[in-house]
Amino acid sequence: MKRLFALCFILILFTGCTNSIDGLYVRVKNNDRSGAIAGMFKGLINELDFKDKHCSFEYFGMKMSGQYEIDKNYIFVNTGGSLGTLSFEIIDENTLEGEGWAYGTFKSIKSFVSKKRPAIYFCTNPKELVVRSGQGDEYSQIVILPRGTKIKVVAEYDNGWCEIEKGNMLGFVLKANMEKEGI
């Protein structure tokens, strides 16, 4: 029994205990892991789609992909080309920190799924409404809602941004781009 326990412990220690990371991840902010490329390019990779040990993404507008492998708290994506291997540190079940060409903090779309909270109802302005993953234009677009779409505001911030809910999605929009329903 002691040997079985020791073997299980060694397997967990050397293979990591990370579950599947399958799903879509969006880049929500920069980090300081870019190396020398930080000044040259911004946001080269903005979305990562992990599925069945395969990662798909766009790089300079070109669709690319590669097999990925999880080793302890890191994910390595072998692109098979001049881009080389992309690496991401697993921070938690919803957060990855990219390095080099894929620098930035990436959040799982699952982390934007709403938890029920009190809300104020609004409707959008008579133009399209860009929903972002954070409070600022530097954050990734989650979706663009057509004009007249009814949304729920779950939090308002002093900087002019609101956290909104639409269906099971959470995101951020500028309050100036909305008007209260019935006005």
Write a brief structural summary.
Helix content is 8%, strand content 47%.
Secondary structure blueprint with pairings:
Layout: H1 2-15, E1 23-29, E2 47-51, E3 54-59, E4 62-71, E5 74-78, E6 85-92, E7 95-98, E8 104-108, E9 120-124, E10 129-132, E11 141-145, E12 150-156, E13 161-166, E14 169-174, E15 178-180
Antiparallel strand pairs: 1-2, 1-8, 2-3, 3-4, 4-5, 5-6, 6-7, 7-8, 9-12, 9-15, 10-11, 12-13, 13-14
Structure description:
The chain is mostly beta strands. The chain has two domains: 18-110, Lipocalin, CATH 2.40.128; 120-180, SH3 Domains (SH3 type barrels, Roll). Helix content is 8%, strand content 47%. The protein has one helix at 2-15, and strands at residues 23-29, 47-51, 54-59, 62-71, 74-78, 85-92, 95-98, 104-108, 120-124, 129-132, 141-145, 150-156, 161-166, 169-174, 178-180. The strands form three sheets. An eight-stranded antiparallel beta barrel has the order 1-2-3-4-5-6-7-8. The protein has a five-stranded antiparallel β-sheet with strand order 14-13-12-9-15, with no helix packed on it. It has a two-stranded antiparallel ribbon with strand order 10-11. The longest helix is centred in the N-terminal third of the chain and has 14 residues, at 2-15. It starts with a helix and ends with a strand. Residues 4-18 have low confidence and may be disordered.
